[in-house]
Amino acid sequence: MQLNLVYFSATYTTQRIVRHIAAQFGTDDIREYDITQSLPNEDILFEKEELLILGAPVYSGRIPAKAREAFLRVKGKGAPAVIVGVYGNREYEDALVEMQDILEANGFQVVSAAAFIAQHSIFSHTAEGRPDEKDMREIAVYGKQLADLFDKVEAPALLSRPEIKGNRPYREVGESHPIPIQVEETCNECGTCIDLCPYEAISEADPRVVDYERCKSCGRCLVVCPLQIRHFSGPFFEQVGQKFAVALAARKEPDVFLPTPS
Ligand SMILES: Cc1cc2nc3c(=O)[nH]c(=O)nc-3n(C[C@H](O)[C@H](O)[C@H](O)COP(=O)(O)O)c2cc1C
Question: Which atom of ligand 1 is nearest to the CA of 87?
Answer without folding.
Answer: 17
